[in-house]
Write a structure and sequence with these properties.
10 helices; six-stranded mixed beta sheet; alpha+beta; 638 residues; elongated
Length: 638
């Protein structure tokens, strides 16, 4: 899209300048002019729907390309105050005329009033330029209303949002060019800038959880790109993604500062802020926000003399799709397979080239992860492909050692006894051999509670140079996911209380885990136990409560960040819980926000999906879950 304007609307209009025109007011038309405020009215729909009308105003935003196919017109001289008789601006749907319209033009428009999925608009039949000067429009400096009526009152107007804004969601940024901001801070969770998952802090189904959910909706506002493009569609992959590139990230939790005005818009059932022109790329002149760049180059120092972490490796499969029959794929914009979609047991990369990109990010992240013991989730169970069960795990450890330049990492071997029917993904444990040493064989819990999940893996460790007093047990976990609602009326059906589907099974898995940990305490002669991994349960949900009632302390719950972002809400599905005997030894904890807060566009799985090359062999978006880390002070005297 060519950029026709070189100055902002504020600069054009405050100077009193207008675009030259061949029409005077008298020449333009002799029809009756209806104020835009009367078109909008004071309700949620226009009182003039279906009627033909003629309005005059100044163009505040125009979109010749990108699918919106129209422009915004605002009453001359408006904007200094909130209008009382109806909004002072309206959207003009004018696909045949918008290409000749520029921001700052003074226009007369005739057409039919309608409501387009909640947005008042005029479908233009005539667009004429006016030559006389228009009184200046001042972008309305306002704290965005949180209620529908307040937003309707200024629908389609040019505004300068006031107050603090924090990025709360970026999942659709590489697909629809939109992101979500959280306004201000929570009144329910003092100081909270993000939109928190209600069941991460309040009991599922509680009035408090419902109230937080309502507040989250009120604090949300979408920032769009002045287009309706789906960047996943082949014809749109040559249009550079808005706002981001490989060096400029828009991260959840980042402060967003407005550097110019935007249009308050309503489309696709959500209130939005539209730029004054379509945003193409990360340095477009129409970008009206600055995003803080969050530096998460390494996790925080958690202290202690031993550290333990959890890391989801996002379906790390050394067996690639092209080695199997029946696989279908997600492909890049040129049709090259990138990741396995379905049809076979592989779940990761489609081919070796894609796998190497995935591996480069995981190795980069794990190499910077300071944990001495790391629980892994979503690594290939190589036994399902006729190989040694630990083949993929061994390969990952080899790659980590190669990156380190020495053999600092080892993996916990599978036990002799393994379940007969396991998932294609599994849990695993790796460790730094100069920090800790394994005690005894690893143990896999075989319990029918885990028939639809990954069986827990337990391993005892002892600090190198320490005695039995420095011994502890780590249990790796990956509970049943929240998706694929059975809708059968059972305790596993999504009840709508915020816990998702399969909650009853996750509760059973938590109970079985407690019994398993008790057995390991006896067999490994220690009361110090850590339960770590992806529990697919937020901190206040039933499975975590089962563990808490058994005496385990959720260490991640003390951190000031969360491990997962879903639907614009932040919470922790990943936890490290300590038995009371070990909780007293904790020196610090951190959730290393390198994955969940970043756009999915940076994943290896989105390589070459757009003309903007977002891929880098760094830690950012190496997975969709953030790693969790705790420090322990383990002494010979207990």
């Amino acid at each position: 899209m060519s950029k026709r304007r070189t100055t902002s609307i504020a600069a054009v209009l405050l100077s009193g300048a207008v675009v030259a025109s061949t029409f005077t007011a008298a020449q333009a038309d002799t029809v009756e002019i209806t104020p835009i405020e009367q078109v909008q009215g004071t309700g949620d729909t226009s009182p003039l729907v279906g009627q033909k009308t003629t309005v005059r105003g100044v163009v505040t935003a125009a979109y010749a390309e990108g699918g919106i196919r129209g422009f915004y017109l605002q009453s001359a001289g408006s904007g200094a105050q909130i209008p009382t008789e109806g909004s002072s601006a309206v959207f003009i749907y004018a696909p045949d005329d918008v290409a000749s319209v520029e921001v700052g033009d003074h226009l007369q428009v005739s057409g039919t009033v309608s409501e387009y999925y909640g947005l008042t608009q005029i479908k233009a039949q005539s667009v004429k330029s006016l030559s006389e000067p228009a009184e200046s429009i001042k972008p309305l400096a306002i704290t965005l209303p949180s209620d529908e009526a307040g937003r309707e009152q200024i629908e389609s107007m040019l505004i300068e949002p006031q107050g603090e804004f924090t990025v709360s969601d970026n999942y659709s940024l590489n697909q629809y060019g939109e992101l979500t901001l959280a306004m201000g801070t929570s009144s329910i969770l003092p100081g909270e800038k993000l939109l928190r998952q209600p069941t991460d802090v309040f009991a599922p189904g509680s009035a408090q959880a419902a109230e937080l959910g309502k507040e989250n909706e009120q604090r949300s506002i979408v920032v769009d790109d002045g287009a309706t493009l789906n960047f996943s569609t082949a014809k749109n992959t040559t249009v550079a993604l808005p706002y981001i590139d490989s060096a400029h990230r828009v991260s959840v939790g980042a402060e967003a500062t407005f550097t110019g005005p935007m249009i308050l818009d309503y489309r696709y059932d959500l209130w939005r802020l539209q730029p004054q022109g379509q945003v193409i790329g990360s340095d477009d002149a129409d970008i009206a926000l600055h995003f803080e760049q969050i530096d998460n180059s390494a996790p925080q120092d958690v202290g202690g003399n031993v550290s333990v972490g959890s890391f989801n490796v996002l379906n790390y499969f050394t067996t690639t799709g092209d080695e199997l029959s029946g696989c279908s794929y997600y492909s890049d914009r040129e049709g090259n397979p990138v990741t396995v979609r379905q049809g076979c047991d592989a779940r990761g990369a489609a081919n070796q080239a894609s796998f190497e990109r995935q591996q480069s990010k995981i190795v980069a992240a794990l190499s910077k992860f300071t944990a001495d013991v790391v629980v892994l989730e979503e690594i290939e169970n190589s036994a399902r492909f006729g190989q040694d069960r630990d083949a993929a795990l061994a390969h990952l450890v080899d790659q980590l050692n190669s990156a380190a330049g020495s053999k600092i990492w080892k993996f916990v071997p599978s036990p002799d006894a393994t379940p007969a029917d396991e998932d294609v993904i599994r849990t695993a444990i790796i460790y730094r051999n100069k920090a800790v040493k394994p005690i005894g064989e690893s143990v896999i819990l075989e319990d029918e509670a885990f028939d639809n999940a990954r069986e827990p893996l337990g391993q005892a460790f002892q600090k190198v140079g320490g005695n039995q007093k420095t011994r502890f047990v780590v249990v790796a976990n990956h509970f049943k996911s929240k998706g694929s609602d059975p809708k059968d009326g059972s305790g596993n059906a999504d009840s709508g209380d915020g816990q998702g589907a399969w909650n009853a099974d996750r509760v059973d898995q938590a109970k079985a885990l407690v019994s398993f940990a008790d057995q390991l305490k006896k067999s490994r002669n220690t009361q110090k136990v850590l339960l770590a991994g992806d529990f697919n349960s937020y901190a206040a949900e039933d499975p975590i409560r089962v563990l808490a009632e058994a005496g385990y302390v959720d260490l991640g719950a003390k951190a000031d960040s969360q491990s997962y972002v879903y639907g614009g809400l932040s919470g922790s599905l990943d936890h490290i819980l300590a038995s009371p005997e070990l909780a007293s030894k904790v020196t610090g904890q951190d959730i290393w926000n390198i994955n969940a807060i970043e756009s999915v566009g940076y994943e290896y799985s989105r390589y070459n999906y757009n003309i903007t090359n977002l891929f880098s062999s760094n830690q950012y978006r190496s997975s969709d879950h953030d790693p969790v880390l705790v420090g322990l002070q383990l002494n010979k005297k207990g």
